[in-house]
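Structure tokens please, single chain.
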Amino acid sequence: MTYWLTIGTWDGWNTVTGKGILEIPKKERKRFERMKTGDKVLYYTKVEFRPEGMLPSAVVGSAIVKQKIPGIPPEEITISRAKEMLEPFRCQMKNINEFSTPVALHPLVEELQCFDNKKRWTIYLTHPLQEITEKDYTLITSIHARHPVRMNL
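Here you go.
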């Protein structure tokens, strides 16, 4: 089993919770190919500014990969279906757990093994899919378990 941190938008998280679908950009093909059924995923949202207020950057939930949704093989794509080349890779998710309080990563930087450069840790969040250790996964989910209060967004 592999543990993943996926970095995306609040709308992307709403797709996970609403439809049970995780979308990964095409540029992450090699990492996506390493994802397998049963892998555990944490979802980190980027900060967003909306008319109703700011939505923070934080780990907002977890899920388990149920299955990959097959795309169209490149040899079958025609000019009329070229748009489908740009569509993201998709996974169907199960056991989706929305954290009652999102977990900020900044206070945990010194403890997390996935960040080699502790001063410039945000560079690791430029890729939409990062492999993390089981220890990091456990640390983040244990912080969530200690804070059961719902965050008002």
